[in-house]
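Minutes, project check-in
Item: structure for the 421-residue chain
Input as provided by the requester:
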Amino acid sequence: MAGDPERSDAATGVAPPPGLATIVREWGRIGCVGFGGPPAHVALLRQLCVGRRRWLAEEEFEHAIAVTQLLPGPASTQLAIYCAWRLRGPAGALAGAAAFIAPGLALIVALAALFLGAPPRWVQGVGAGAGAVVAAVAVQAGLRLVPGSWGRTGEPAAPEGAAGCAVAGEPAGAARRALGAARARWLGYLLAGGAAAATLGPWLVLVLLACGLAELAWRRGIGHGPGAAAWAPWPVPLATAAAAGLGALCWTAFKVGALSYGGGFVIVPLMQADAVSHYHWMTDGQFLNAVALGQATPGPVVLTVAVVGYAAAGVGGALLAALVAFAPSFLFVALGAPRFEQLRTSPAPRAFLDGAGPAAIGAILGAAIPLARALSETWQYGVLAGGAVLLLVARRGVVPTLLAAAAAGAIAALAGAPLPG
């Protein structure tokens, strides 16, 4: 498989795959400069693998994006792992995953030690200011996902068609009724996810699963097919088994990595109740700092879980939480990549995601309520309002908004404003 990556095969237009050292270098570079979350990661991977080096065909890359959107967990991380797997098999996947994740992990653990220790007053102000706008970031992240998810509502899951979907050949009236029913269910899943994020805390994951299974059951017909009966019970014993200590940390990280649908920000409501209310690893202010750090550092947003791990058990806890959170992504790709095309065209994963996806979007939007409630100082609400204007009205980026809020917090701290405990 090794060869000169710059030399293109005349028949396919695809260059020979690179060596492991090249994968480590290039994936590590993306891990260092990948500010901006999944859209930035996808653009950088496309530029590298399709445009600049021609290691993958455009169509294959597009199919990989489609499949990783169907998988739970961090989609851009799974895309990075898949591209490396496609070039060098399991060894390439492992090297690419480590190189992509390690830079952001090292940076966020160092920042966690700074912000969760005994920092000077101005550093506390930076954290309090950046954390104040996290609720607005959640709203922006959720709203950005709504149009695409709503637009896909009612599309057939597979050529065979299924109950509840509008398929080609149906009379116009039946198609309209099917679309109306699908959109009514979409709204129901969205509201269920939002309510669960605002009220249920650590049990949100069960609501996400229930919405996915409900849509799958609707498509197949209640009582037909193995989906709900086979999948419904298994999270409950896992949730009860991880009662305390490192087991609790592993369960929290596992939910983040394996049971999150709808983008990186859905991990926030999954973590908040565990980290703050249930296990008391962090204060509300520290959790807001953790989310802000996850947004402002390069690499996957899921690295936020490392800050929670650091609060729970120091550097070892941070590394353990990151390992547990990213392990499912690696396993999904390593075990499932040969069947990605079958997964992309299978109606069951699409149906499940059509239920879990809107619930996850609702959870992201609903997370803004407990995040805003976590603010303890009056001036932070002013920073939140300013951040909301920048993000939702002026349409500024997340990182510049966080930096502006951090600067406002530092100024407030130096001026003697009260800081969160």
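Outcome recorded: The radius of gyration is 22 Å.
No further action items on this chain.
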